[in-house]
Structures are given as structure tokens and as C-alpha cells.
Amino acid sequence: MKKKEDICCEIVKDTSKKYVPMSPEIVQTSSFYYPTYDDFIAVSEDEKNNYVYTRGTNPTSEILEKKLAQLENGEKCKLFASGMGAISAIFFTLLRHGDHVLMANTVYGETVALAKYMEKFGVTCDRVDLAATEDIASHIKDNTRLIYFESPSSQKFELLDLAVISAIAKANHIYTVIDGTWASPIFQNPLNHGIDLVVHSLSKYIGGHSDLVGGAVIGSNDLVDEIFAHGHQSLGAAISPFNSWLALRGLRTLPVRMKHLDEAVRTVIDGIKDDDRIAAIFHPYCGNSTQQALSQTYLSGYGSLLAIDLATEDFDKLLNFVNALEIVSIGVSWGGFESLALPAFKGNNSEKLAERGLSPSHIRLYVGLEHPESIISDIKQALDKAF
Length: 387
Ligand code: PLP
Hints:
Blueprint: H1 4-9, H2 37-44, H3 59-71, E1 76-80, H4 83-94, E2 100-104, H5 109-117, E3 124-128, H6 133-139, E4 144-150, H7 162-171, E5 175-179, H8 184-187, E6 197-201, E7 215-219, H9 221-235, H10 241-272, E8 278-282, H11 289-298, E9 305-310, H12 315-324, E10 329-330, E11 340-343, H13 350-355, E12 362-366, H14 372-386
Parallel strand pairs: 2-3, 2-4, 4-5, 5-6, 10-11
Antiparallel strand pairs: 1-7, 6-7, 8-9, 9-12, 11-12
């Protein structure tokens, strides 16, 4: 079996061409030329396997699709203009009026907003604690069609038992979809544990340089083809060839970056965990024994996104802390080269935080590629200024 590093770095060696570029061409075209109308009819009847129009397929994007499918041990991958484009396409394709979605109570906010919006189309959603696997069966209704989750979750970074969830879903003929962005395809492969579809936001680790937005869905030929035919083609969230090319460039260093970040995040957590100005750290590395066991089963390394609660309810201290950070920047998203901090509290959303079980002093921290000791020193000096 090919190693993941080899898949990420493999050059497309089409020796039928006069030259083979090490870095693939960016096929920057909207549409493709055919010598005869018969040729056009032949390809347009099977658009998913041919090049007709870049809203459907594109050679540069296809290189990345093949690599991501291999990395996830899936049959097929389809790229999208963003992670949300991918998630919306799944919902649009797999759900019908009258269906019910079981969603983990801890997923990315925009995905929750999508599920709530689907009510308009007669799709209902219950957000539940999927960590309590013994209760999952009781949440399933006759019309439950999809179980959707992240593992680890957004905000508290708790791992779920993929094999158990998938077994319950299969017994009830329900699709399972995981957003696997946190661990990347390098550290977790949910399809191996029976999950039907994996979603990645390419905007995070795969792109890796904070310079593109993209998404991917990986699964069986049948499911991905169905999503291509409906969610991809009709919603039209097609990735641009240039963004696919940037993501391919990011992918070459993904295993090396993930290896570094796995070590870096543990170093940073070890460096701040005994500071009494930090009330809690949320990351599987410092999770309880259940989380440790789930890490052992499902992860071959740690993503570097975590969260902390400061030991204060004072919003000024929270503000002073994030404003005093020098190496760690304030900003959304994560997975790039730069360390980031993002408080959950915006001054007016206490109720929403309480609903999600988050403290007002909850801060999402992303450990980037700066030296881990510099990140620790930065956090410490900002704590000194805030407290
Ligand atoms: N999934 C997770 C866990 C995310 O954090 C995000 C974005 O922040 C997304 C999905 C959405 O991806 P995108 O921003 O590429 O639409």
C-alpha cells in the first residue's frame, strides 16, 4: 500500500505529452473544445467522467480529487468551492422533505445554521450528545436519514466513537457523515470505521497557507456520484482550478506539517496546562480516560486546534489577553501557518454560549507553525498583562 507521504507528493506522469511538469498545469478554463458534435454528445452524456465545463469537472481539480480519495481510503472524492459548499451539497442531495437529521450538539456553527434552515424544506434536526452512545438509539426516529458529526467536535474537541455510531446507523439504514477537518486525512480515516462520507474544509490544513477556500467530500462511487449529479451540479459551488492547484501544493507538505503540529500542540499544552490563570484546556491530548482511549483507536496524531477557558468571567481580562498576544493573531479560520486566537464571547452572545455549554471566557486557540516555545511565551506574557 502507498504511504500517505507518497500519495501527497506523487507527480502526474503523463508521458504521452512532450513534457511532464513537476507541478501540474492549472487548467484555467471554463469549458472544453470538441472537434465534432458527436464527440461533444459522447462526453456530455457522462459529464462526471469527462471534461465539459469547469462547474462540473476540471483536470487540475481531478488530480486533487484522486489524491484525497486515496488518502481517505475512499472510492471517490468531489471538490467544492468551500467546506460549507460540500456540506450543503450533501444535505441537498441526501435529504428529502419529511426527513430527520441527528446532529452532534457540538458541530461548526454554520453547519448548525444550515440544519436549522433546512426546516424551511420540511427537514427537521435534533442536536444531541452523540458521546452518550447508549442514548443514540433512543434519538433515532422512523424518518431519521442522516447522522452528522465532527470528531473531535468544534469548541470542546471531544472525540466520538465512530465504529459504534456507524454500526447503529447501519442497523437503522441511516447515512453517517463526519466532518474530519480537525484531524485531516493524515491522522484519521473515518471510512475505515464504517462512516459513509467524510467532509474536509480544504481552507484549513490541506490548503495550509491561509490563501484558499475549498471543500471536499469523500466516500463510495455511488454516493459521491449522486452528490455530484445534484448537490454539486445544481448548487454550483465548484472549486476554481487555481484553488485546486493551491490545495495540491499544500497537500505536498501536509504530512510534514501535521507531524510538526502534533508535537507542537502537545508542547504548547504542556507549557500552559499548569498556569492557574487557565481554568480548562479542551483538546483530546488532555482529555479524560475515555478520550484517551478514543484517541488511541481513531487518531494517529493530534490536530493543533484547541480551546482554553481563562480563570475569569471578566470580559475586560479576556479582551486584554487577546489584545496583548503578539505572535498569536486574532482571526477566524485555522489550519494555516499562523497561530490564532478567537474568543467565543462577543460581548452580546452569553445566551448562545450557555446553550452550547461554553464559558464566557472560552477562547479557541490554533497552534501554527511558529516555534512552540515562542507561542508559549506569547500566551504567558499576554496572561501577565491581562491578570
Ligand atoms: N468544518 C469546520 C470544522 C470548520 O471549522 C469550518 C470553517 O471554519 C468548516 C467546516 C467550513 O469550511 P469552509 O470555511 O471551507 O466553508
